[in-house]
Amino acid sequence: RRPKITPEDAEVVRQAIPEAAAISLTSGYPTPQSDVIWGDRTLGDVLIFGITPDYQVVQDYRFAGGQPLTDVDVRERRSVCVIGAEVAEKLFESVDPIGREIRIHGQRFTVVGIIVRKGKILGQSFDGFVMLPFSTFESMYGRRQTTTVSVKMPDAASVHDAMARAQEAMRLAHRLNPNEADNFSIETSDALISFWKSLTSVLFSVVPAVVGIGILVGGIVIMNIMLMSVRERTHEIGLRKSVGATRRDIRRQFLAEAVMLATLGGASGAVGGWLFSSAIAAASPLPARVTAWSVGMALALGAGVGVLFGVYPATRAARLDPVAALRAE
What we know:
Blueprint: H1 7-16, E1 22-27, E2 33-38, E3 41-51, H2 55-58, E4 63-66, H3 71-75, E5 80-83, H4 85-92, E6 101-104, E7 107-115, E8 120-121, E9 124-125, E10 129-133, H5 134-141, E11 147-152, H6 159-173, H7 189-232, H8 234-242, H9 247-283, H10 292-318, H11 322-327
Helix pairs in contact: 1-6, 7-9, 7-10, 9-10
């Protein structure tokens, strides 16, 4: 079992990386959830976690009101808290939360700050939390199974060197022999960046294939629909030819119908894409939107599919013998 990270470990990292812009200690897994009560109102399943003040710097939090937690709050184990925008809106509605007292597990906390809304990703809110001073949190919940030391460097170029120094300092602090593995882990935002790059790579590989298959299947469906239309309207085709319609006229008619059918499919896809992107934008901070050029591309692609897969049915209709067509039922 790994030993728990302690405030002393955070100090070890601080001494190893004196140039760090911010170093914080944060309560980790398992993160407790609790009812938060104000007056006669209760908000359930709110995430509660403890921090040291620099965490607010590491996370680039901006405040909609009030002030951050301070070193004095941690040192004196004060009963104060900073709340997320969702907690402020749902629990207090139109009332200003600053200076109000909330209750968590029967203990009273004064709200001193409100974090600006972060938004959601895949339905997971980043605003439904209460942050307590780290010392106050531990007095309530005890030390967590995992605790995190977060470091913010002044520039990206110094990250890897800082990681190496932090690792060496932590190994010395934990008295590890050279042949022993680390009993802690060090991670960077590179892991997250790598994940998004992998995801993007997969999307750019898979999406074109899916689009291509969709176009092929859609085109085959349109061609079959038009062939059925030719079969069912054989008598009509013969009648039109008998009154002077040329092969070109018949071909143009069925080709236009195929293009119209495919373009309607493209328009439906554009509407579906708009609805999907609206849902993504509502559920996450990702900038999902449908642009005018993408709608135009969908319509143009639909028309192109109609032309490509409508040629054969239109040509088949144009080549029908008028006498045989008139005899058809």
